[in-house]
Amino acid sequence: MLTGVAAIGCMPYLLAKSPQTSSRCVEYFHSAVRIFNAKLKALVDDLNRDYSDSKFIYIEFFESLQEILDSPSYGFNIKKSACCGRGRYNGRIPCLPNLIPCRDRDQYVFWDPYHSTEAASLIQVKKLFNNDSRSSFTYPMTILELAKL
How far apart are alpha carbons 66 and 70 in whole angstroms? Predict the structure, then answer.
C-alpha cells in the first residue's frame, strides 16, 4: 500500500502558522500535495506492471479527509481547531501531558495540531477499507479486495 499525503493545508498546525485566512485550508500546501499524490498514484501502475507477482494499491488520504471536512453529514462541528493543544486553532503547541483535551472530541475532526480524532479516523478507515463512497479512495482496488487475494 502506498499512501498519499493528506490534506495538510487543513491541519491546525499549518493554519496556525499561516496568515489569517477566511478559507478552511491553506491552498498553497495543497498544490504541492496534489502533484505528489498524482505521481504516487501513477507509480502504482508502474509497480503493478513491473512486479506482476505483487499487488500494489494507492490510498487516497487527501480526498477522504476533504470529504469529511466538506460534508456536514458526518456531524463534525469543529473543523479548523484541534481538540487538544494551545494557541491559534490549538495548533501552535501540541497536546502535552498537562493540557486538558476538549470534552466533546466527537465534534472535532482534529485531535491535535497534526492528527485526526478517533471519530474522523474511523470514518476514513471504513471508507478506505470498503471504498463505500462515490469517490474512489483506493486504486486500483479496495483494501478489502486486496486482502482477499
Answer: 6
